[in-house]
Amino acid sequence: MSEKQTRQAAIKELIGAQMIPNQETLVELLLAKGIKATQTTLSRDLNELGIWKGPEGYVLGNEATPVRATKNELKKVLQSLLVSAEVASSLVVLKTQPGRAQAIGYELDNIKLPLVVGNISGDDTVFIATRSEEDAMQLKHELENMI
Predict the structure, then answer these.
(1) Which domains does the chain have, with CATH numbers?
(2) What tens digit of pLDDT does each residue of 61-77 get?
């Protein structure tokens, strides 16, 4: 096995066996196995392996079926990560703590709220598309009420 294959196998094993909240923890766990890796290399490996970061940490994307979100899970993520919400025409723009937007976007995708057409999540911003300004205002109020 090549160094890359060994490292990627170890990554999958570690993520499959325990909750890993961030890359720093993953670097430490790999080092404990005698595998050195930079965060840049890990980012590339995680992408190649289809591993994504959910609200609780890394998840094996191709091998684990995502659990359908509930309003309670969305509420928990919003309470812990949401900084602000603003309506911009038919969009609701959510600001989060740095690096946390994808967790909210993931929960929104899985809960399939009727007012949500779709969302795009960046590092600290989620753009949620609705069908109208009225829908955007209603969605903003629904999300704020969850908090």
Answers:
(1) 3-60 (1.10.10.10), 71-146 (3.30.1360.40)
(2) 654 444 455 688 888 88
Residue 11 CA: distances (Å) to CA of 1, 40, 52, 66 = 14, 14, 12, 19
Averaged over 94-106, what is the pLDDT? 89
Could you tell me which of 117, 108, 99 has the C-alpha nearest to residue 143? Answer: 108
Residue 17 has pLDDT above 80, yes or no: yes
Alpha helices (runs of H) in the chain, residue ranges in sequence order: 3-17, 23-32, 39-48, 71-81, 101-111, 133-146
d(C-alpha 132, C-alpha 61), whole Å: 33
Rounded Cα gap, residues 30 and 34, in angstroms: 6
Contact status, residue 56 vs residue 19, Cβ threshold 8 Å: yes
C-beta atoms surrounding 142 within 10 Å: 15
